[in-house]
Amino acid sequence: MASTAVAATLGSSSSSSSLNRPCRKSNVNSCSLQTPSILHFRKQSATCTPSITIPNPTTRQPEQSTPSPVVVVPQKQQQQQKQQPQKQWNFLQRKAAMALDAVEAALVSHERQHSLPKTADPRVQISGNFAPVPEQPVVHNLPVTGEIPDSIQGVYLRNGANPLHEPVAGHHFFDGDGMVHAVQFKKGSVSYSSRFTETNRLVQERNLGRPLFPKAIGELHGHSGIARLLLFYARGACGIVDPSHGTGVANAGLVYFDGHLLAMSEDDLPYHVRVLPSGDLKTAGRYDFDGQLKTTMIAHPKVDPVSGELFALSYDVVQKPYLKYFRVSPDGKKSPDVEISLDQPTMMHDFAITERFVVVPDQQVVFKLPEMIRGGSPVIYDKNKMARFGILDKNAADASNMRWIETPDCFCFHLWNAWEEPETDEIVVIGSCMTPPDSIFNECDESLKSVLSEIRLNLKTGKSTRRPIMSEADQVNLEAGMVNRNLLGRKTQFAYLALAEPWPKVSGFAKVDLSTGEVHKHTYGDQKFGGEPLFLPRDPNSEREDDGHIVAFVHDEKEWKSELQIVNAMNLKLEATVKIPSRVPYGFHGTFIGAKDLERQA
Questions:
Q1: Residue 20: is it exposed, middle or buried by C-beta count within 10 angstroms (0-12/13-18/19+)?
Q2: Closest alpha carbon to 313 in 274, 362, 356
């Protein structure tokens, strides 16, 4: 999902941040992570070292029927921290560390005199099943109800935010350290594991025993955000932390390309994670395509199912060019960057491809770092800006022939597919149009609406049209999801999208006919919630586009247990349920690696 708007100021060059502009009122779904708090934090020490509260699994809150999960550092990780040698500081570094800790303690004390917005309050943002979990070493022979389809052989992986340490100040759900959850289907047996992605940031904070890198969305806003940046710079200058090898969390996207499973957030380079033969996971390291990638990469690159090429964007919030486009051949050779001219840095979490083009959104959520000096957020909704889409040939050497088409008041956090319709000279874009545009980051009472929409970009006239795909009577909030990836960039009949209700939870998924608007729903069950549905084709040569299965992690908030549901995509009947040995928090995006591809890992 979105990363930080000010990651560039930490040593990277892109992403998104907290928003605090006033919103209109409404009595419908709240538009941010505003579930009741069930986390209990101990007071921080004078040195700001976070205390870790170990959960009591039997404790229940008076107003809820679920156990009380809290921020956890698992025993295994505590042992690892003790075993790993600490960096040896000299006398001056030790004195500098003590002084900077005292400054941070004063800053935290000042911040605690003011209430945090719910979008930055860790007692809200990581409460319930949004709370982090320990790593889970691989567990085999999981119990299965029903029958696993023979076509499912390989590993399902899903990324998510899972903070290693208790936050010392503000924290947004998107700020957490990346953790990948893996379910492997192998020779009739099912296994599960979950591991942190060993980012540069996580490794340093684990060795130091506390969070020292700024929380991009939860902390970096206003004057206190500037103070935290200066504090981080000072620690870097003294050699207490080292941001030179990235500051990202790798918690959003996953893609398998050229033998590499890549974990991504748009504030850094991707990280290569290996799936071991046992089904466990291991971080191989930060991945730069053999030295070819010098900048960050967004969390939603696209792999063309026909050519096998990977297409991606990289954006910068500090200096021009604010946006770059590049592609990578199936054997890992990266093209030169194509610089795309923008007047101001813009949040671009996603984009789309067709057979011949890349489709780039330039929308109304923009970055203005000077806003921090005035006490606000560096990310704002610019209502005076005209939203537009850029169309560029996939193989373009530069952006001189890029065509921009205006799309008034259109903000799509995710785009599900796009294709060309030559008979009308149009490109059709399928996305969920979100209002208000800053819903995910901004505390407000206005209801969130995420409307599945068809946007037509006419290359002949330069005009656009937009329509909701579903009828008003069927309208529900649809967010994370996908189409059949074997047809990415080509016309598709169906999209499989999360039912983001009650927001921010996901109660099931919808299968939507993109031409007729017909909707069929699968709900996960009473007090059961999940996340992004992942479509797995049964046979890539099947005549039916929907011939396959949907897999999704589901958590039972009544029994406080997690499972993996496998649903027939044609009739939406539940075919199998895999019992997961530990809790799986709500998370972000996933992928599936087939058994044959696993054998060819780099």
A1: buried
A2: 362
Residues 6+ apart with CB under 8 A from 371: 377, 378, 380
Total tally of structural domains belonging to the chain = 1
What is the identity of the amino acid at 260? H
pLDDT above 90: percentage of residues in the chain: 51
CATH of the domain at 169: 2.120.10.30
- Residue 425 has phi, psi (to 5 degrees) of 55, 40
Q: What angle do CA 112, 117, 123 make, to 5 degrees?
A: 75
**Cα–Cα distance, 188 to 185 (Å, whole number):** 7
The sign one gets for the Cα dihedral 576, 144, 159, 167 is positive
Question: String of b and e for 406-421 (b: at least 16 CB within 10 Å)?
Answer: ebeebbbbbbbbbbbe
Q: Based on the number of CB atoms within 10 Å of its own CB, is 392 exposed (0-12), middle (13-18) or buried (19 or more)?
A: buried
Q: What are phi and psi of 142, to 5 degrees?
A: -70, 145
- DSSP states of 4-61: -TTGGGGTS------B-------SS--SS--PPP----PPP-TT-PPPPPPP-TT-B-
Task: Please say whether the beta carbons of 165 and 196 come within 8 A.
Answer: no
Q: Are 568 and 549 spatial neighbours (Cβ–Cβ below 8 Å)?
A: yes
The answer to the question of whether 245 is labelled as a binding residue is no
On whether 171 is known to bind a ligand per the annotation, the reply is no
Entry pTM = 0.85
Report the C-alpha gap between 313 and 325 in whole angstroms.
5
Is 59 part of any domain? no
DSSP-derived pairing of the beta strands 508-513 and 464-468: unpaired
Closest by alpha carbon to 311, among 338, 287, 286?
Answer: 338
Residue 481's nearest CA partner among 412, 535, 439 is: 535
- Measured distance CA(222)–CA(228) in Å, rounded: 10
Distances (CA, A) of 86 to 43, 81, 213: 25, 9, 17
- The secondary structure of 463-525 as a DSSP string is -EEEEESS-GGG---EEEEE--GGGTTS--SEEEEEE--STTS--EEEEEETTT--EEEEE--
Residue 146 tokens, joined: 């029903």
Whether residue 416 is contained in a domain is answered as yes
Q: Classify 123 as helix, strand or coil.
A: helix
pLDDT for position 446: 67
Pairing of the two strands 136-139 and 189-196: antiparallel
In a domain, 63, yes or no: no
Task: Give the Cβ contact number of residue 544 at 10 Å.
Answer: 14
Q: Are 589 and 534 in contact (CB under 8 A)?
A: no
Task: Tell me whether residue 347 is in a domain.
Answer: yes
pLDDT in tens, 326-361: 999 999 999 999 999 888 777 788 899 999 999 999
Residues 6+ away with beta carbon under 8 Å from 446: 23, 24, 25, 26, 31, 436, 439
Q: Containing H/E element for 83?
A: helix 75-83
Q: What span, in angstroms and rounded, lies between the C-alpha atoms of 255 and 270?
A: 10
Write the pLDDT tens digit of every residue in 225-282. Answer: 778 888 888 888 888 889 989 889 999 999 999 999 999 998 899 999 999 999 999 9
Domain containing residue 448: 91-599
Side-chain-facing half-sphere of 424: CA atoms under 13 Å: 13
